[in-house]
From TrEMBL:
One of its GO terms (biological process) is negative regulation of translational elongation. Residues 129-182 form the Sigma 54 modulation/S30EA ribosomal protein C-terminal domain. Its main location: cytoplasm. Required for dimerization of active 70S ribosomes into 100S ribosomes in stationary phase; 100S ribosomes are translationally inactive and sometimes present during exponential growth. It holds the Pfam family Ribosom_S30AE_C. The lineage of its organism: Bacteria, Pseudomonadati, Pseudomonadota, Alphaproteobacteria, Rhodobacterales. Transmembrane segments: none annotated. The gene is hpf. This is Ribosome hibernation promoting factor. GO terms for molecular function: ribosomal small subunit binding.
Amino acid sequence: MRYQISGKQLDVGEALQSHVKSELGETVDKYMQRPTDATVVFSRNAHEFLCEATVHLSTGLTATATGHATEVYAAFDQCREKMDKQLRRHKRRLKDHHRERSQPVEFDAAGLYVLAAEDDESAEGDSLAPVIVAEMETKVPTISVGEAVMQMELSDKPLLVFRNEKHGGVNVVYRREDGHVGWIDPRNSK
């Protein structure tokens, strides 16, 4: 597994890097057979250290965890515990699905646009077209609905756009206010 360990305005020494590699490697190897790479970023917020870890798996799924504490090692340990919990749940769900993905997840390129927030002055303008602040590219995975829900929960995001592998249409899963997961499939709207 490839590691990228860095600090934002913080010096990450050799001791911390070796600690991260051994502990995170042990955690990931316990649950996943083929992790590809891990990115760990340390930063400081006032008196607390923050640790953000992202692990990319060969199946295309991404696990993300964060931790914060007054000491840098404690922040990493908290982050590692959250990662352990996410990967344990993910492995349990894969076993419950009774399905093994033999091929890696395919990704399609898609445009990602950041629109300017509307303020009172721009609302009075003649044009209803939004102002584009940034234009980037993102990847849309081709996965099943169950895998989309797992990916959304692993990445701790409020929603996930994906291409449904059953019919190839674009779908969305999202976290509802009541705690349940919603699924939007435009193909089934009749």
